[in-house]
From TrEMBL:
Residues 41-61 have a biased composition (Low complexity). Residues 1-36 form the signal peptide. It comes from the Bacteria. This is FMN-binding protein. It comes from Microbacterium sp. LWS13-1.2.
């Protein structure tokens, strides 16, 4: 047992030296405090200005998204209404191939409006809605298509 403990010391020391060397290397890349503050202020005002002009055209958009389940590949249709890049309405319809998919799509459809209405479309990345996680993949795919179509 003593040999095992002693044998692990060089590995720990090597790992520690590697970590210290990495930190030292990264520290040399960090900007000085005055350099870091100035661009951040400029970036913030730029993103605020571009957000107020709208990256997406107002309107109603529809796209399909698909996702795989253990039993099948499912498709949903997503319709969103955008005003100033904010989702003001959402409708999701499904065409479930399996009974279990029908249940999960129904739960997703019943809860998605509470999650996305009132949100900026760029902030939407749904992972689980009302217990349904796989349907989210199709929804996110459709949102990406809608963003492409609505881009100014």
């Amino acid at each position: 047992m003593i040999r095992t403990a002693l044998a692990s010391r060089p590995v720990r020391a090597g790992a520690a030296l590697t970590a210290v060397a990495g930190i030292a290397l990264l520290a040399g890349c960090a900007p000085e405090a005055s350099e870091a503050e100035e661009p951040a202020t400029t970036d913030t005002s730029d993103s605020t200005d571009s957000g107020s002009s709208g990256a997406y055209a107002d309107g109603t958009y529809t796209a399909d998204g698909s996702y795989a389940t253990p039993e099948s590949v499912e498709t949903i249709t997503v319709t969103v209404t955008l005003e100033d890049d904010v989702i003001t309405a959402v409708e999701v319809t499904g065409d479930p191939q399996k009974r279990e998919s029908e249940q999960y799509q129904g739960e997703f459809i019943g809860g998605i409006a509470d999650v996305v209405v009132g949100q900026d479309i760029d902030d939407i990345q749904v992972s689980r809605v009302a217990g349904s996680s796989l349907t989210s993949g199709g929804f996110n795919e459709a949102i990406e298509t809608i963003k492409s179509e609505a881009a100014n």
